[in-house]
Design goal:
about 110 residues; alpha+beta; 4 strands
Length: about 110
């Protein structure tokens, strides 16, 4: 996981999997609850087998956010998608928090 002093995830030598989540917030409504859930998802992801790290940012004006989570394998990333508490957060995101979102999964071949 990243820290305040080191914003980059510490990843091993490739290959590994990157899940890129791009989102546009619907409103600033429930911002505290959203932030709390996002923080909880970071903690929960870090407990999962194959988790390598996360990098995330959000523009406070436009609401556009990008979060990249790194996984040891595609199977580990798929398993994270199926974690019950994460699925509940995904549902809330679709129904309440995001106007639009997109998930892309990539295999990292080079890192420099």
């Amino acid at each position: 996981m990243t820290s305040q002093t080191e914003p980059f995830a510490s990843t091993p030598a490739p290959p590994y999997t990157a899940v890129i989540f791009t989102s546009l917030r619907a409103t600033a409504h429930e911002a505290d609850e959203y932030a709390e859930t996002a923080h909880r998802m970071e903690q929960l992801a870090a407990e999962q087998p194959g988790y390598l790290g996360i990098e995330s940012c959000r523009d406070p004006v436009s609401g556009l956010g990008i979060t990249v989570s790194y996984w040891a394998s595609d199977a580990a990333a798929r398993a994270w998608k199926r974690v019950a508490e994460h699925r509940q957060a995904q549902h809330r995101g679709r129904s309440e928090w995001y106007r639009r979102y997109r998930v892309r999964v990539a295999r990292v071949e080079r890192d420099y």
